[in-house]
Amino acid sequence: MAHLLGAERLHLEFPTRTVFDEVTLGIDEGDRIGVVGRNGDGKSTLLKLLAGRLEPDGGRVTLRGGIRIGMLDQADVVDPGKTVAEAVVGDIEEHVWAGDAKVRDVIAGLLADVPWNAQIASLSGGQRRRVGLAALLVGDWDVVFLDEPTNHLDVEGIAWLAGHLKGRWAANAGALVVVTHDRWFLDEVCTATWEVHDGIVEPFDGGYAAYVLQRVERDRMAAASEAKRQNLMRKELAWLRRGAPARTSKPKFRIEAANQLIENEPPVRNPVELNRLAVSRLGKDVVDLIDVGVVYDHKTVLHELEWRIAPGERTGILGVNGAGKSTLLGLVTGAVQPTTGRVKRGKTVKIATLSQELAELTEWADQRVSAVVAEQRTSYAVGVGSKAVELTPGQLLERLGFSNAQLSTPVKNLSGGQKRRLQLLLILLQEPNVLILDEPTNDLDTDMLAAIEDLLDSWPGTLLVVSHDRYLIERVTDRQLAIIDGHLRDLPRGVDQYLELRKGVDAARAATGSRYGEGAPTRPAEAQLAGADRRNAEKELSSIDRKLERLQADIAAQHEKLARHDQSDYVGLGALGDELARLEASVADLETRWLEVSELLEG
Q1: Is 74 part of a structural domain of the chain?
Q2: pLDDT reading at 597 higher than 50
Q3: Full DSSP string of 229-282
Q4: Residue 488 maps to a domain
Q5: The three-state (H, E, C) secondary structure of 439-455, written as one string
Q6: Residue 191 to residue 168: CA distance in whole angstroms
Q7: Could you give the number of structural domains in the chain?
Q8: pLDDT digit string (tens) for 120-154?
Q9: Domain range spanning residue 239?
């Protein structure tokens, strides 16, 4: 493989610290490199050095002659005076760019909901970020540097970006270097990982899963002071091997070595014990949404929705932006009142929400972290049953990555990631029995995400998570639901099933929709079913929708039976579990048929 770019003995200092010292790296054709590390250790700075946007204090970066470098920086902004079309394709004639399959794919993948002729100044921050990413990806580059490209993308957008980058070049051509905290994305796209820490860059073979394995091996040989870190990553590795079917079917690391490391590692959660504790804290009634509908300005957001939340339930909620996820959470918390139907809450329910806005910290902005935690509980139980241990708030802060020096820092001076961790700690110290996490991964690096997931593993309550982070959803929840066209659908096969359903919905709408957004060229007409065949297909689709709604209600009732059943009656629990599996299999079959009929209607 030909060499594209190299860094020799890079040295960089900021006024308060040395960022890099004697760092030597190389990028070859075919490299797909993910960059991980703690926030503030220099990941973004490394990309700027390699891309030529920042000059080192020592050493040099060398390029092969004629190579083209493209970069998306976190600070990159699009000219607000331009339109979306001008920012993405410039002054190229429409018949030219529209004839380029790559350009069409990028626009459809990132900008389907963005008005094509809108001024950049009129767009939201997330839309501007996607326009900037699209403008980069339509270009031809030998090396692409991406700094947090999955920010402002939903699950579908992240899946699209992964597929685009995997197919952008031939196997041994081009190079990609990406900084991201999205661990699913790292595993899906990257074939090598660089860890930035302590002024160095340490290379590992493979994506995130392989990096975790090698790091566990490294930590096994480290000093005893590394024991806590080792145990946490060992638990992470155990979940990677046991909990995610996509990884266990095609592991990217050595199976035997992984099995030896995790053979004595217990499952990440004890669902029976957690459920027992949840019932004792919550009672049998949590929140029931019964035939609930919500209408805003004559637009139906949620329609005849039924969801009976069980004690100890751990559910991830998926849906495109605007699908109604925030509305659904508002119904649970009471912030939103239903237009139709009713919401029933248990008498002992105590709900807390980890919001995106960090509003909980406003009143403590000028106080030191140590003073804030001192006002809370003096101890917090971590673990389940006989393994539970009492930790002080200070010990919890240490577990979440705070150093002793940071305890004396005013809250307003904390980084975004530190504020997010403090926010979670303050909520947990209130001991709610229903916890809602709304995009909790913002501003957190992979190590801190693992630490928070470890803390949530032993949390004995009902957990509802809304996130575009696929890894987090699969890691901390046991069930996934999707909001599609105002209805709540169970996803027995998780995120993969959701993406399949969304693809079917998009295909069904494509015949009447615009390919590139408002003001762009419309999709050409395609052959479609006609006459009696079309009417029969539409009837069958409607029938499937009704059957799916009934089955989802049956599944919700079955979950309730499981929650209320004697947890020591394993035979009875097994029978109820078998019935639940049968119902979920029926849903899967119907959803497969739904996709087939949708494709027929599309033509």
Answers
A1: no
A2: yes
A3: HHHHHHHHHHHHHHT-HHHHHS-SS-HHHHHHHHTTPPPS--HHHHHHHHHHHH
A4: no
A5: CCCCCCCHHHHHHHHHH
A6: 15
A7: 5
A8: 999 888 899 999 999 999 999 999 999 999 988 99
A9: 209-266
